[in-house]
Design brief:
The chain is mainly alpha-helical. It folds into two domains: 36 residues, no CATH class; 40 residues, no CATH class. 69% of the residues lie in helices and 0% in strands. It is elongated and about 60 Å long. The two termini are 35 Å apart.
């Protein structure tokens, strides 16, 4: 699916709409979407700290391959 083409199709469809009930529903969807929080904004401080530690580990090369992780945790899977 090409997201840009889908958006363009929706824009064209909306521009031809004459049904005010559908337009009202679309407005509600838009308003609800505008009010929704980004998932990042719902994280606790300790979760953000944990993610940042993981990113720092990655940047500094402190990582393991998938194969190594599977070997380490194999007994738990």
């Amino acid at each position: 699916m090409n997201i840009q083409a889908e958006k363009q199709n929706l824009i064209e469809w909306i521009s031809r709409l004459n049904d005010s009930a559908i337009i009202d529903e679309l407005r509600k969807i838009k308003d609800d979407y505008s009010k929704s929080k980004d998932w990042w904004d719902t994280l606790k401080e300790e979760e953000i700290d944990s993610i940042n530690r993981g990113l720092k580990d990655f940047e500094e090369g402190r990582v393991h391959s998938h194969i190594t992780a599977r070997k380490i945790y194999e007994k738990y899977l």
